[in-house]
Structure formats: structure tokens, C-alpha cells
Amino acid sequence: MVLQDRVALVSGGGGEIGGGIALRFAAEGAAVMVCDVSLEKAQAIAQAIRDMGGKAAAHRVDASNPLDCEQAAAAAVSAFGKLDTLVNAAATVTPDGNVEKLDIDAWRRALDVNFTGVFLMCKYAMPHLRAAGGGAVVNIASSFAHFGLPGRSAYCSTKAAVIHFTQVLAIDYGPDNIRANTISPGPIDTERSLRRYGTREKANSVRGRGQVLGRTGTVEEVATAAAFLASHQASFITGTDLRVDGGQTAFKGDSLATSL
Ligand SMILES: NC(=O)c1ccc[n+]([C@@H]2O[C@H](COP(=O)([O-])OP(=O)(O)OC[C@H]3O[C@@H](n4cnc5c(N)ncnc54)[C@H](O)[C@@H]3O)[C@@H](O)[C@H]2O)c1
Q1: CB count, 10 Å around CB of 41?
Q2: From the alpha carbon of 17, which atom of ligand 1 is closest?
Q3: Which CATH class for the 7-258 domain?
Q4: How confident is the model at residue 203 (pLDDT cuts 50, 70, 90)?
Q5: Nearest CA to ligand 1 atom 11
Q6: Distances (CA, A) of 101 to 107, 115, 164
Q7: I want to staple 4 with a disulfide (CB 3.0 to 4.6 A). Which of 29, 103, 172, 245 is the partner?
Q8: Rg, the chain, Cα only
Q9: Average pLDDT score over residue span 233-249
Q10: Are 207 and 216 in contact (CB under 8 A)?
Q11: Which residues are catalytic?
Q12: Is the pTM of this model over 0.90?
């Protein structure tokens, strides 16, 4: 129970990794405000937490909308008395193609959700974390922040931006006892990969191929890292990026096969 008495807001909490993090945080003792652009998905995760005896509520948030983010942070405080932990896991489906093919509106939407969404949630959550006497931010980046993939400039660059943004956030808020870190997941076994590869078997065999550990990772493995970074166990860790990627970024092998 490393997050006993903590209150967390998880943006993208209706998704697979965000939902896994929300469930894990609740199991570790935190009350969780599950936020997602899909209220239905957020409600399903919040209900699952309550079914296991935990504390949770759901809120519809478009992470690119300033008012939504402000209201979500306030809703967490009004539901659970404070807010001391923020996880940003929301990401939109990003367009593929070289710069000539990329549509400007799709490009802007990718930046608005994947990057500006992180800025906005932090902007409105930080005053509450400071008021709580400190806390932790965990932003979900990607191994693709660390190397490029053909046609994936929108996804790769938004994720690289999240890492650099989080380093500066850590610097700005260290004096307030607020730590900020990123996680860079590698190929994780999720529906997102199913959409790209068709079947789970194909996704796992293509994406696991050539990896140091020879397999894709699990949502639980990312959630474990998030719980660690959010907890007092990581009390001297801030401004860093934790690669939960099975060695993907250490290995210059068949990394193209892991495109997500
Ligand atoms: N799955 C992987 O292998 C993998 C690898 C590296 C990084 N990631 C990152 O992990 C995070 C979660 O990915 P996932 O695989 O769980 O995907 P997912 O699609 O299951 O989760 C993303 C969630 O974000 C929500 N969302 C989309 N647009 C939003 C918006 N405007 N405002 C608020 N919420 C919005 C979606 O409804 C969804 O619930 C993402 O940031 C993704 O980039 C995933």
C-alpha cells in the first residue's frame, strides 16, 4: 500500500495503460479521479475500483480543453479533499505519413492532446499539489521519444516533448516538494497495437521480435513503474525518464518492427 491516503488524477484513465495505472493506484491505497474523453470508459474503471473496495470517481475531460482540465482537478479535490498525484496517460490516435502527407489539422490535434494536454493538466493540478504540501507527477511518454520511426513524426515528437517538458516541470516545482518524472513504455500488449496489427498473436510476434527480452510488456509492468515513481519509494527521483521497454531503446536491432 505505497499510495495510502494519496489522491490521484489519471488523465486517459479509461484507456488500457491509464486504466491499469488507476486500478493499481487504488490497490495501493489511493483515491482516484479517473478522467478520459470517453466518460463511459472512465466510469467503467472507476466502477471496477469501487467494486474492489477502493475509492474512485469519473470525470469527462478532453485533455486539450483548458476548462475541462481545470474542472477535473477541482473535481478531484471536491470529491476526495485534496489532490497530490497526477498521471497523464491520454493520447489520441496520431496520423502517419511524411510531412508532405500529414494533414495540418491532424498534426495540430496530435500536439493538442498528446503534448498541450499534459501542459494543461499540470497547469491546473499544480496549485492543488502545492496546497497538499507536495506530490508527484508521472507523465507517460514512449520509447519512440528516444528514436524515430518512418512516418511517425507526430507521435514521436509529441512524446519527446513530454519528456523535456517534464524535466523543466521538475526543476520549477522541486522547491514545492513536487516530483515530476516520465515513463517511456516500449511495446506493450494493448488494443492500440491490435488496431495496427490485426491480431494479438501477430502484434506480439512482430513487436516482440528482436527485443532484448523477446516479448512485449504488460500494462501491469507499466503500472508498477508508475506506482513506484508516484510513491515515497521514489522520494529522491525527479526529472528523470524511466524506460519500461524491455531493453528496446538499448538495442539497435529490429526496432522498426515495433512500430505503434
Ligand atoms: N500501448 C503501447 O504499447 C504504448 C507504448 C508506449 C506509450 N504508450 C502511451 O501510453 C498511453 C496510453 O496508451 P494505451 O495503449 O493505453 O492507449 P489507449 O488508447 O487505450 O488509451 C488512451 C486513452 O486516452 C483517451 N483519450 C484520447 N483522446 C483524449 C483526449 N483528448 N482527452 C482525454 N483523453 C483522451 C482515450 O479515450 C483512451 O482511453 C498513451 O500516452 C500512449 O502514447 C503506449
Answers
A1: 20
A2: 16
A3: alpha beta
A4: confident
A5: 89
A6: 11, 21, 27
A7: 29
A8: 17
A9: 96
A10: yes
A11: 155
A12: yes
Average pLDDT over the chain, rounded to whole?
A: 94
Phi, psi dihedrals of residue 185, rounded to the nearest 5°: -70, 145
Q: For a pocket test of ligand 1, which of 39, 41, 156, 192 has the largest count of ligand atoms closer than 8 A to its C-beta?
A: 192
| Residue with grid cell 515528437, as numbered in its chain | 157
- Residue 175 C-alpha to ligand 1 middle, in angstroms? 31
C-alpha cell at position 142:
514512449
Q: Determine which helix (DSSP H) or strand (DSSP E) holds 139, and give its type and residue range.
A: strand 135-140
Mean pLDDT value across residues 187-216: 79
Stretch 9-25: mean pLDDT, rounded? 98
What is the atom index within ligand 1 of the atom nearest the CA of 159? 43
Q: Is the pLDDT score of 33 beyond 50?
A: yes
Segment 173-181 shows an average pLDDT of 98
Please report the atom of ligand 1 found closest to the CA of residue 192: 15
